[in-house]
RNA sequence: GCCAGGGUAGCUCAGUUGGUAGAGCGAUGGACUGAAAAUCCAUGUGUCGGCGGUUCAAUCCCGUCCCCUGGCA
């Protein structure tokens, strides 16, 4: 496959609150694009405000894909995302529009653009069983088990890392092969020619914006949104509730947190998250780094990549 | 003004029967292959309120001053 067979895509990444959506709208307007979600939480239908999904006006002005299509109890995953996003990119391109991937979930972007190991789906009963056992017996016990059955994975994983330890065990049980085996398989990635744009801002600069943004969400009906979601799905362990702001508002609605504490935690967790994202994206040495708001550089880089 | 309790890390506090101090939270850095807005790891020098005194040695004991909180006037 040569370069001309590959679909050119624009990728707009960066920490939460750096203005990715605005940049995507700008690029979409300039180059006849469609915005495709690359953010795990914005996939949930019940939380458009709290997860900062594009507004109905924005979605009416420019085609958007993969936003708000999951119910609270449905689980998302990197593999599922890669499949859905690949289809979305191809559909958008076939319709004569430029695909613009926008979002802050670095793992999902890697899964889509770099491919992901072809691990078969693990039955829910298997993963639930390991998770339950991890809750009961603790991650160290499971880490010991993993060391016996898959020493290579155990060596890579910290004994406290409950999530990755259970993943390694469930894959081993469901497929009979270790995670290492699967990661050595050739991966298939989409036929894309991606320009990765990274909106960069220091945490210090970002922090006050995050506070303003949270307050704007509350002003835009975040509490009402959480109440409605609660009426439909009260279980805080449901996948949809795991977004930042959702979990804290759930605590407020059940009386576990007063509103001030709820807001303080919401803001703190948002900040922690932004910091993790900054760390994650630092690793991407090839991305084009732009200052949020630098529309000229953004449009010039996109034009060059698209050959226009 | 008197009495009592306090002044120790950015914050809340613990502690040293005298040998210059440590938790939680925060902060900072990092990891990340199907839960990723998740999960996990690493990092603690601070005039122990100021000044004097006792002592080989004081954050700890004594004196004095300053500040905070509560009670009594």
Average per-residue pLDDT, rounded, comes to 96
What fraction, in percent, of the residue positions are helical?
40-55%
Q: Please state the structural category.
A: alpha/beta
Number of helices: 14
Walk me through this protein's architecture.
The chain is of the alpha/beta class and 308 residues long. The chain is 54% helix and 10% strand. The protein has helices at residues 20-31, 56-61, 78-94, 106-114, 124-137, 139-149, 151-156, 162-175, 179-183, 203-219, 222-232, 246-253, 259-282, 295-306, and strands at 7-14, 33-37, 64-65, 98-102, 192-199, 288-290. Strands 3-2-4-1-5-6 form a six-stranded parallel beta sheet, sandwiched between helices. α5 packs across α6 (139-149), α10 packs across α13 and α12 (246-253) packs antiparallel against α13. The two termini are 22 Å apart. The model has no long low-confidence stretch (mean pLDDT 96). It binds one RNA strand of 73 nucleotides through α3, α4, α8, α9 and α13.
Secondary structure elements and pairings:
Layout (H helix, E strand, L loop, with lengths): L6 E8 L5 H12 L1 E5 L18 H6 L2 E2 L12 H17 L3 E5 L3 H9 L9 H14 L1 H11 L1 H6 L5 H14 L3 H5 L8 E8 L3 H17 L2 H11 L13 H8 L5 H24 L5 E3 L4 H12 L2
Parallel strand pairs: 1-4, 1-5, 2-3, 2-4, 5-6
Helix pairs in contact: 1-14, 3-4, 5-6, 5-8, 6-8, 10-13, 11-12, 12-13
The chain binds one RNA strand of 73 nucleotides through helix 3, helix 4, helix 8, helix 9 and helix 13.
């Amino acid at each position: 496959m040569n370069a001309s067979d590959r679909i050119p895509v624009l990728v707009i990444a960066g920490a939460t609150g750096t203005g990715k959506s605005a940049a995507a709208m700008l690029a979409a307007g300039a180059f006849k694009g469609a915005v495709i979600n690359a953010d795990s939480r914005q996939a949930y239908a019940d939380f458009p405000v709290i997860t900062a999904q594009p507004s109905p006006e924005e979605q009416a002005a420019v085609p958007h894909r993969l936003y708000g299509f999951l119910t609270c109890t449905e689980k998302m995953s990197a593999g599922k995302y890669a499949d859905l996003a690949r289809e979305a990119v191809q559909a958008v391109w076939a319709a004569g529009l430029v695909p613009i991937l926008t979002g802050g979930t670095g793992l999902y972007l890697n899964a889509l653009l770099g491919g992901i190991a072809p691990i078969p789906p693990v039955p829910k009963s298997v993963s639930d069983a390991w998770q339950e056992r991890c809750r009961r017996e603790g991650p160290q016990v499971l880490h010991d088990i993993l060391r016996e059955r898959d020493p290579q994975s155990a060596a890579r994983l910290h004994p406290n890392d409950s999530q990755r330890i259970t993943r390694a065990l469930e894959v081993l049980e469901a497929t009979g092969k270790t995670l290492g085996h699967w990661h050595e398989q050739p991966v298939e990635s989409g036929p894309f020619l991606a320009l990765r744009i990274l909106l960069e801002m220091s945490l210090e600069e970002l922090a006050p914006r995050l506070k303003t943004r949270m307050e704007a969400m509350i002003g835009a009906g975040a509490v009402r949104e959480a109440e409605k979601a609660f009426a439909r799905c009260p279980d805080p362990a449901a996948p949809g509730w795991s977004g930042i702001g959702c979990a804290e508002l759930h605590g407020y609605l059940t009386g576990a947190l007063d509103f001030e504490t709820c807001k303080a935690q919401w803001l703190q967790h948002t900040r922690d998250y932004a910091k993790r994202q900054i760390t994650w994206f630092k690793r991407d040495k090839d991305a084009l780094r732009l200052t949020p708001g630098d529309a000229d550089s953004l449009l010039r880089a996109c034009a060059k990549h698209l050959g226009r």
